[in-house]
Each structure stands twice: as structure tokens, then as C-alpha cells.
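User: Predict the structure for this protein chain, please.
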Amino acid sequence: MVLGVPVVHVVVVSDTHLPTRAKDLPAPVWAAVEAADVVVHAGDWCDEATVLALQARSRRLVGVAGNNDGPDVRAHLAETAVLTLEGVRFGVVHETGDKAGRERRCDAAWAGTVDVLLFGHSHIPWDTTTPRGVRLLNPGSPTDRRRQPTGTWMEFDVADGRLGEVVLHRVPRAPQR
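Assistant: Here is the predicted structure, written as C-alpha cells:
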């Protein structure tokens, strides 16, 4: 709480692809997860053990299944999730399609329903706002950086009906030997 106003601290991850792309989440991501009020995972967990580990180490976990998630993961998760935190409406989905036309497609699917859409799939961080005002956020991937210089995840606070500053964190690179 800040000056009597409840604040919810949120960590967003996606595309962890465990254990194929990494054996575990990086230590800074686990520290962020354990400190957060809510953890959101936007799909492509790839194994049930990751779902269970995040459930055990999160105060509250919200997640969706991704295109690489099998029946073991899907037994725990839906394709989409909607939640409201301190007056801000969030949608969570894995895929939003190609970057070209993303804002238009997301407006058509989500405008009027959510204020912020959290998504994954591309492994590329994304932060834009659609013409109708839906904020689109993709945290990238903390474990499978693809064409990015480092792995990434996002954090932000929600209070009094507003989304605070969105911080994109970069996973520190291991020292070269």
C-alpha cells in the first residue's frame, strides 16, 4: 500500500520452454516471481513441472496454454484468461498473430473487454497501444532469446485503476570463460 492505496506488483513471463531451452528459470526471474503479488505466464511452459513450480513459488499465478504446451500443461490452464487488478482489466493469451496488423486484430478481439493484453509467442518484447486504447505487452522470453540480445521479462505495479511504469528486465548474460 502506498498512502493508503493498494498496490499490486505483477511479474509477466512467457515462452519459458522448460526444460528444452533451459533447465530452469534464471535466478533473477525466480527472485522476481517470489517477490510479486501476481505472476502471469503467457504460454509455452512446455512441461507440467514448470506450472507446478511457478504455482508453488507464486502468491498468485495466472497463466494460459501456448502452442507448444501438451496435455499435461493444458490440464491446468485455459487458452485465455481475464482478470482485474485494482481496477485495471487484463487479458492473457499466447498468440496474437504476426506483428503486422497486431493492433487492429487485438482491437477487434479485445477492445472494450480489457485495458491491457498480455501475450507471448514471438519471444520478442512488445509494448504498444492499439488505436482504441488497449495496451499490448509481451515480456519476451527469459530462457529462449531467439534474435534478442538477452532473455527478458516484465514487471509493473497496478494501483487505483492505473498501470504503473512497465519495466522490461534483461536476464544477465553468463560470463564468458
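The chain has a mean pLDDT of 94.
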